[in-house]
Design a protein that fits this description.
Layout: E1 15-18, H1 23-34, E2 39-43, H2 50-61, E3 65-68, H3 74-83, E4 88-91, H4 101-111, E5 116-118, H5 135-152, E6 157-160, E7 163-164, E8 185-188, E9 194-198, H6 200-210, E10 219-222, E11 229-231, H7 232-243, E12 249-252, H8 254-262, H9 268-279, E13 294-296, H10 297-300, H11 309-338
Parallel strand pairs: 1-2, 1-4, 2-3, 4-5, 6-10, 7-9, 8-12, 10-13
Antiparallel strand pairs: 9-11
Helix pairs in contact: 1-6, 3-4, 4-5, 7-11, 8-9
Length: 349
């Protein structure tokens, strides 16, 4: 069954989010709740690790409705979509579950009432980016999902939000979880290739704006705020201003990144292949956003601003100060604990 592409998702339609315990998924779920959307969250049956359980509890406390299931179960997904009258489905799954979205698309197509599907993109335009292996395999899978969505006739939106607003580590550290460097900068190539850096909350906020916007239907939505366009040298200078000192720079060459990628150590090699594509080949900036299926988010919502990278680095600075204060308190407590009372001998003056 083909869903008419002239229908836009209704305001305050019921939204199902898959992968809400992940980094991007959580921001999307929180933004959906902030927007007052009836928000449903799909989680796997069975016990969750403590960090994911805390996320689910937080979303539930804010009003999210928790559903249990997996997107690879077509019959169950059809049942959930119908019973809860879902209008928009947003996927933020990753890793080995990317191709499971094909089964989800089949369920959406069978139900026939879903007004918009956002597959798990939230990065580069996978039809234009071309990383070396092993990163390429992930993009080939995402391209396969795209072709399935387009063939199905289900209205879609692809969110191409580029990089997370932080220092881009290539060695498998999640940028959002690690402070920018405090010892030295690793500069990729000559450090002059630019990329766009988007705060997680903005990814969620602008994603939610697209779900009921007819202008984003069957489009690649690119996040390219000029205020957040930096090269690695610029990032280094910005962080140096925040911490008030200059750090040495170490060059990571193109050959270095390609060597790490070729070692096929998962996931480090995947991250190295993406880093090469971004900061050597310029995959975020080497094409214009002017095709019939492309739209830039800033042109759609010019009244909305992005958090600047400068503001995001202020957050890292505050986190650094908090960690330093905590460490100081630990040292102070430890010192106090090991001090033993000494006998004082009376003396005659």
């Amino acid at each position: 069954m083909t869903v008419s592409t002239c229908v836009s998702a209704a305001k305050n339609g019921r939204i199902l989010i898959v992968g809400a315990t992940g980094f991007i998924g959580r921001f999307v779920a929180e933004a959906s709740l902030d927007a007052g959307q009836p928000t449903y969250v799909l989680i796997r049956p069975g016990p969750l690790d403590p960090s994911k359980a805390d996320i689910i509890k937080s979303l539930k406390d804010r009003g999210a409705i928790i559903l249990h299931g997996v997107i690879s179960d077509k019959a169950l997904m059809e049942k959930l979509l119908r019973e809860h009258e879902i209008e928009v489905v947003i996927s933020a799954v990753g890793g080995t579950t990317i191709l499971d979205q094909i089964i989800l698309v089949e369920a959406i197509q069978a139900v026939g009432t879903i007004k918009r599907f956002l597959p798990s993109e939230f990065g580069h335009d996978v039809d234009r980016a071309d990383p070396v292996e092993p990163g390429l395999t992930m993009y080939l899978e995402k391209r396969q999902v795209r072709r399935c969505v387009e063939k199905s006739g289900v209205p879609y939106t692809y969110i191409c939000c580029n990089s997370i607003a932080s220092w881009p580590y290539f060695d498998n550290k999640h940028p959002s979880e690690v402070l920018p460097p405090l010892d030295q900068f690793q500069i990729y190539g000559d450090g002059s290739v630019k990329a766009y850096f988007i705060d997680g909350a903005d990814i969620g906020k602008f994603t939610m704006k697209t779900v009921d916007d007819i202008r984003t239907m069957n489009k690649n939505v690119h996040f390219r705020p000029p205020s957040n366009l930096y090269d690695i040298n610029g990032l280094a200078s910005l962080w140096e201003k925040k911490i008030g000192r200059t750090l040495p720079r170490v060059t990571i060459t193109e050959d270095d990144l390609l060597t790490i990628a070729a070692e096929n150590r998962i996931p480090e090699s995947i991250v190295a292949s993406f880093t090469h594509d971004i900061f050597i080949k310029g995959c975020q900036v080497n094409f214009p956003v002017d095709g019939p299926h492309d739209v830039e988010i800033g042109t759609l919502y010019p009244e909305e601003s992005f958090r600047t990278l400068d503001e995001c680095f202020n957050d890292f600075l505050l986190k650094l100060e908090d960690e330093q204060e905590l460490e100081k308190n630990k040292v102070s407590t430890k010192t106090t604990a090991v001090v033993e009372p000494r006998a004082v001998t009376a003396t005659c003056a």
